[in-house]
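Re: that chain you flagged

S.,

Sorry for the slow reply, it's been a week of failed gels. I finally had a moment to sit down with the sequence you sent. For the record, here it is as I used it:
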Amino acid sequence: MNVDHEVKLLVEEIRRLGTKNADGQTSVTFGMLFHDDRCANIFEALVGTLRAAKRKSIVNYEGELLLQGVHDNVNIVLLQQ
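Prediction finished late last night. Pasting the structure tokens below so you have them in one place:
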């Protein structure tokens, strides 16, 4: 899979799993994405896809590298609705 395609799939999964925040943006926790069975089947490297989406200003989250367990409560915000 190419990166652009995986980023598009990531946006779809954030919309599916996420909720609207006070600003009207869709957000989801890293833990919810990481532990979702469908996401596990889609993404070989979820963290890499998230980093690519962040570099393209499609999502935003605190930090650079997200680790399962440690960063499960980090919110990933979809910037492009």
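What I noticed first: The longest strand covers residues 26-29.

Talk soon,
D.
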